[in-house]
Design a protein that fits this description.
Blueprint: H1 2-26, H2 29-37, E1 57-58, E2 70-71, H3 72-120
Antiparallel strand pairs: 1-2
Length: about 140
């Protein structure tokens, strides 16, 4: 399970790096300047013939090239939401993995306790002779 999680994390990092590089290449200086020129802040230049937008827009990679973009704050909220959902899913997987591990350890402990109880209750072999005599010739004096 750890291997699958590690591979998933590595794949997610690679996809994230690819997305960020595409995001940077799609939103070059010209697009940012074009969207800023359409905002209310740059309204003083009245020679702009395009419609006025209220926020700076950002192009999303892997979408249609003729789209006008997405508002930056909406993009950040979407990224934050995606991160929260992904973190929740990873923590949920970890919780279920740990619960499964605890259940298997409880089962193993129960099995070992049962084995220990059977060994405790087993009779001592009758062939075993216990004596207090010391036959090695050593004597103990006070």
């Amino acid at each position: 399970m750890k291997l699958i999680q590690s591979l998933f994390f590595i794949i997610l990092l690679i996809v994230g790096v690819i997305f960020i590089t595409e995001l940077i290449s799609v939103n070059d200086e010209n697009f940012i300047k074009y969207t800023f020129d359409r905002t209310i802040l740059s309204k003083e230049s009245e020679n702009s013939s395009s419609e006025i937008v209220d926020m700076v827009m950002i192009n999303i990679p892997f979408t249609s090239a003729d789209s006008s973009g997405m508002k930056v704050w909406v993009f950040f909220i979407l990224v934050l939401t995606f991160g929260l959902v992904l973190g929740f899913m990873i923590s949920l997987i970890n919780i279920f993995t740990q619960r499964r591990q605890i259940m298997s350890q409880k089962y193993e402990l129960k099995k070992l306790k049962s084995e220990l109880d059977t060994l405790r209750n087993q009779n001592i072999d009758e062939n075993l002779i216990l004596s207090d005599d010391f036959d090695d010739g050593t004597t103990f004096t006070d």
